Amino acid sequence: MAYEGAASGAKAVLTRMIAGTPAAVYAAVTDPAKLRLWLRPADFVATEVVNDLRVGGAFRFRMRRSDGEFFGAEGVYCEVVPNERVVLTWRWNEGPDDEEQARNETLLTIAVQAVGDATRVTLTHELLPNEAFVQSHSTGWSEALDALARCFPSPASGEHELSSAEACAG
């Protein structure tokens, strides 16, 4: 599948170690109910997640900032490898940023890999139009990955499944 997007090729790459199995973490990044628990920056609440997890399937989500403003994005899955990675297009379709470049199609990859008793999550957001977008997306994704990490209990607990919504909220 061809990817269309900004010519600059600027990208954000973030990693987190999560105290869960690759299968549990993969489920957290692909199941709509679980995505709602963590897929948002710190000052937001995810209000809608639609996820048709298959190559060519649609992804759509919406979140509300604490001041009541909504942001939304949509995309199409390009690659789905169970318990390893998903690759999808990403385009903002709602939010206060009216710059046309904010609406460009970008590419998002979320990969999970076992490392000992934990899972390394690597999130790569590519084809961002410039370094300002890299910075803003890095901040938002970093806060989202922090929320994802909070969804899983510590390794000392012996648990390796997604925790409660309260735990994810932080």
Give the fraction of residues assigned to helices. Answer: 10-25%
Mean of pLDDT? 86
First and last CA, distance: 38 Å
* CATH topology (level 3) name of the domain at 10-43 and 82-90 and 104-169: Alpha-D-Glucose-1,6-Bisphosphate, Chain A, domain 4
Radius of gyration: 15 Å
Write down the overall geometry.
Answer: globular
Strand content: 35-45%
How can the largest sheet be summarized? 7 strands, antiparallel
> Strand order of the main beta sheet, please?
1-7-6-5-4-3-2
> What's the CATH class label of the domain at 10-43 and 82-90 and 104-169?
Alpha Beta
| DSSP strand tally | 7
Which parts are unreliable, with pLDDT below 50 for 5 consecutive residues or more? 1-7
Count of runs of 4 or more consecutive helical residues: 4
- Level-2 CATH architecture of the domain at 10-43 and 82-90 and 104-169: 2-Layer Sandwich
CATH homologous superfamily of the domain at 10-43 and 82-90 and 104-169 - what is it?
A: START domain
N-to-C series of helices and strands: EHHEEEEEEHH
Provide the structure class: alpha+beta
